[in-house]
Design goal:
Order of helices and strands: HEEEEEEEEEEE
CATH architecture: Sandwich
Strand order of the largest sheet: 1-11-10-6-7
Largest sheet: 5 strands, mixed
Distance between the termini: 57 Å
Number of strands: 11
Structural class: mainly beta
Helix content: 10-25%
Number of helices: 1
CATH class: Mainly Beta
Oligomer: single chain
Radius of gyration: 19 Å
Length: 156
Amino acid sequence: MVIVFAAVIVSMGAAMYMYTQYQVNFITVNAGEPVTVGPVQYIVTFEGTHQGNKETQPEYTFVKIGIVAKNISQEITRMSGIQFYLIDDKEQKHEAVYVGISEEDLIDDNLEPGKPVRWTTQFDVPYDEQKQYNIVIRPTKQQSTVDTAMICLTNC
């Protein structure tokens, strides 16, 4: 009986340890403030809205963000547009859209250690300048971290 009780206690302890190790760590900042997710330090800014160009037009409105990313580790790491989501006032998640309007549009990049880069990306959303929008940055699989950034973009 004592052995069974000890086994239950040990298994509960192991489960709690694993649970806390893989619990998401949300880091909240405002646009323009640096935030570190895994080996990358980001500064995200609101660049405005636009209606695209002749070749690419949004269903609603493109919300454009600027991204400055710096790899603070000693190894090359990957950054991709699919790491970024816009969360609207209804808590709906919108994925980044590659529109190819400028050479700064982020698709995929390998970040060299210590070298900051600047990219932009867009989100096609029914934009209302009175509402709050947030950007979520999730790490890539390669970065293996539980950190996730929540950046207040507008009307913080």
